[in-house]
Design goal:
Layout (H helix, E strand, L loop, with lengths): L16 H28 L1 H8 L9 H6 L6 E2 L6 H17 L1 H12 L5 H4 L2 H31 L9 E2 L1 H18 L2 H10 L5 H6 L1 H15 L5 H32 L40 H10 L1
Helix pairs in contact: 1-4, 1-5, 4-8, 5-7, 7-8, 7-12, 9-12, 11-12
Pfam families: TatC (PF00902)
Subcellular location: Cell membrane; Membrane
Membrane topology: Multi-pass membrane protein
């Protein structure tokens, strides 16, 4: 075997600590390169991205726009020479993270998959096919929620005043919502992955529904910058639906697993069910007896001399 050939991989995915660290480094580097590549592309089109993100802001250039925002207009102005460069980097980097979702989700799964069984790796395509659309769905919901968030926040300004809105402040809120909403939509997929990996059962997930609904509501209240209940429900309602959809998938998977292996859900210290049904006994074969016993085998010569000495 040549020196350049790699050693065969363990079919069970066992590796030394140094190999795990090297694998993690390679996955992180590949994800970072993909994010950097998409960030560079987004930086080239940063003006289009900035205009797209600033659409929800109240321009109030016409009487119709003033009436739409209830007379609350904001003056958009930048402060400082380096602020525009920081905005470009921030917007481009966030766009790069969002655009590289399929890449870093695949690298994350590829790092975890070697530790799973062979039948568990078959679901990688399904997880990858669902992970990217869920993240992008959260991004879309965040963008659709931005106009309501802006209206609610500007409505708190005193009458007769014109709010001065720095773009960096607005982009901080908008980009945080985009990332938080995208990651929040991945939570049901994480529950399905834990169920398919045998960590948690669908019945247990269903038993957690009260705590999950409360936790999702509290998370939505903190994740949305505005304090209105509409914004909170816009984030919480899809995650509620996705959570119960994940519970349904987990229950179906448990039922399928129970049909293949009835003892799959038993604990290590729990006895399995015994099959006490009587089974028919096969008929024993008859053995014919010999007419005369076989003569004893002759003893060796040394054994005969020893017996003569004893007698």
């Amino acid at each position: 075997m040549s020196k350049s050939s790699k050693p065969p991989k363990d079919p069970e995915g066992r590796m030394a600590l140094a190999d795990h660290l090297r694998e993690l480094r390679n996955r992180v580097v590949k994800s970072a390169l993909a994010i950097v590549l998409f960030t560079i592309i987004a930086a080239i089109y940063h003006r289009q991205l900035e205009s797209f993100l600033m659409e929800p802001l109240p321009r109030c250039n016409t009487p119709e726009e003033v009436a739409h925002f209830h007379g609350k207009c904001a003056q958009i102005s930048t402060i400082g020479l380096t602020t525009p460069i920081g905005l470009v980097i921030k917007v481009a980097l966030t766009a790069g993270v969002v655009a590289a979702v399929p890449v870093w989700l695949y690298q994350l799964w590829a790092f975890v998959a070697p530790g799973l069984h062979r039948h568990e790796r078959r679901y990688a395509i399904g997880f990858m096919a669902g992970g990217a659309p869920l993240f992008l769905s959260g991004v879309v919901v965040a963008y659709l929620l931005l106009p309501t968030t802006v209206q609610v926040l500007i409505s708190f300004s005193p009458n007769g005043t014109t709010p001065i809105l720095p773009p960096e402040n607005y982009f901080d809120i908008a980009l945080r919502m985009v990332l938080v909403f995208g990651l929040a939509f991945e939570f049901p997929l994480l529950l399905v992955m834990l169920n398919f990996g045998g960590v948690v059962s669908g019945k247990r997930l269903l038993g957690w529904w009260r705590g999950m609904v409360m936790a999702i509501t509290v998370f939505a209240a903190f994740a949305t910058p505005s304090a209105d209940p509409v914004s909170m429900l816009v984030l919480a309602a899809p995650i509620w639906g996705l959570y119960f959809l994940a519970v349904g998938i987990a229950l179906l998977n448990d039922r399928r697993r129970a049909r293949r292996n009835p003892d799959a859900d038993l604990d290590d210290d729990e006895a399995s069910q015994l099959d006490l049904t009587a089974a028919p006994v096969e008929v024993a074969e008859s053995v014919a007896a010999s007419a005369a016993p076989a003569p004893p085998a002759p003893l060796p010569a040394a054994r005969e001399e020893q017996m003569d000495d004893i007698t």
